[in-house]
Write a structure and sequence with these properties.
mainly alpha, about 450 residues, single chain
């Protein structure tokens, strides 16, 4: 079954990415300490926020229109390069002016020159979002996976050389991240150019259509990002960047559970536009309940081993991350449902479901963070996130059930046949990997 195979392959790549990202986070934490780790997290939260604020869902539109063959890939790529460069540069410049004029409190204590340097990655981020979605439009999931893994690998190598060996400290960590993004973007662009001629001119009609479709899901993606990262901004504002360092470890470990749901959602998003509703109605429930089952098992395992893992990998100094991690796990597990079903529904041309789910979640998350962080610290931030994540999964669950006529039991409760199919898929993936390694 292609869907299971692509999901498994994507998840395998994500597992490698987890390893590299975790190793990078570990090196930064060990070499820079809680305050340096917090500063690094806040530095790259800024460009991530700006990209999510300004991309207007054009990447999603690239996958939808390209996957359905409604517009040529070359035109989609050309528009993406022009819009990504122009809009990304404008957004970066606007934030630089805001930062220099207001000196925002959530970036206090972080060197101004580094804040300005990381803004270079904003247009890179726009281009990466747009162009990687073109790979999905072509159903080149393996190429998408390789590009993602390349950036994680280069980031780790860069931190090892610049921070560990050359002792460049926070400057080296920033440089490593910037370099990895530049190289990964060049790689993606090369992959696209191998299969198509890029029409490097702005197609106004295509841009209007892309914006009209993309903005429906863009609002939801933006709100979801705020749900995921708003707590870090508020932690920095209320209790300081050192607490961000602890909390970032909790978040990094908890969000590792999202790699399988995100992989399944990505594959469903890429394949659903080309499938019939009947095929999707049959396949998606099995994927959803299987993913949820594995995520629950992984969360239970992580809860059991979290304390020795934090102590061993990050050191005794980061043990304050333990309680927030435990509190985050139920919400992160519940959000697996959202990550599978929202992506599938976007593939059906229904991006507003994710927007509604994210909006409801944010309406709960923001006031809870404001109330709980001053009283409970980073444990309060984790509690606010868990409650909002759980609510965020109810909306797509109800929407997909109504759209497909599927019962909640079929979406949530794993079956023996699912476990058998998952085992067979895993065995197939392992055999394929072994064949590649021998070759």
């Amino acid at each position: 079954m292609r869907l299971l195979r692509d999901t498994g392959s994507t998840f395998g790549t994500e597992i490698l990415g987890i390893g590299f990202s975790l190793a990078t986070s570990l090196l930064i934490a060990r070499l820079l300490g809680p305050e340096g780790k917090g500063a690094y997290s806040m530095l790259f939260l800024v460009p991530a926020l700006l990209v999510n604020l300004g991309h207007f869902g054009l990447g999603t539109a690239n996958t939808y229109y390209g996957g359905r063959g409604l517009y040529p890939i070359g035109s989609l790529a050309g528009n993406s390069i022009i819009v990504g460069t122009v809009v990304g540069t404008a957004v970066s410049a606007a934030f630089a002016a805001y930062y220099l004029l207001t000196d925002p409190s959530f970036l206090s204590g972080i060197p101004a020159n580094l804040v300005l340097v990381v803004l270079v990655t904003v247009p890179l981020g726009f281009l990466a979002v747009y162009l990687k979605h073109i790979l999905l439009a072509q159903a080149r999931i393996a190429a998408y996976n390789v590009a993602t893994l390349l950036q994680a690998t280069l980031g780790l190598c860069g931190v090892a050389v610049l921070v560990w060996l050359l002792r460049w400290s926070l400057v080296g960590a920033v440089a490593a991240c910037v370099i990895s993004q530049v190289v990964a973007l060049a790689f993606v662009l090369g992959l696209i150019r191998r299969r198509t001629t890029i029409a490097l001119r702005l197609d106004g009609g295509l841009l209007r259509e892309s914006a009209r479709f993309g903005v429906k899901g863009y609002i939801g993606n933006l709100i979801s990002f705020l749900n995921y990262r708003l707590d870090m901004i508020l932690v920095s504002m209320y209790i300081g960047v050192e607490q961000v360092g602890y909390y970032s470890v909790s978040v990094n470990l908890a969000e590792a559970l999202w790699y399988l749901p995100a992989s399944a959602g990505l594959v469903l998003f890429a394949l659903t536009p080309g499938r019939s509703a009947a095929d999707s109605n049959a396949a998606t429930p099995a994927i959803c309940r299987g993913v949820l089952f594995i995520t629950v098992l992984a969360a239970l395992l992580l809860a059991l081993v979290a304390q020795p893992v934090i102590r061993l990998l990050f050191g005794e100094a980061f043990l304050p991350a333990l309680l927030p991690l435990w509190i985050l796990l139920p919400g992160v597990t519940a959000l697996a449902i959202n990550k599978v079903l929202c992506n599938e529904l976007i593939g059906r041309g229904k991006p507003l479901v994710g927007t509604v789910a994210a909006a409801v979640s944010l309406a709960i998350n923001l006031p809870l963070n404001i109330v709980l962080i001053p009283r409970l610290g980073i444990a309060g931030a984790a509690l606010a996130s868990t409650v909002s994540y759980a609510v965020c999964s109810i909306v797509p669950l109800v929407a997909f059930s109504r759209e497909s006529g599927t019962s909640y039991r079929d979406l949530l409760v794993v079956r023996r046949a699912d476990i058998r199919d998952l085992a067979l898929s895993a065995k197939h993936i392992v055999r394929q990997r072994l064949k590649l390694n021998r070759a």
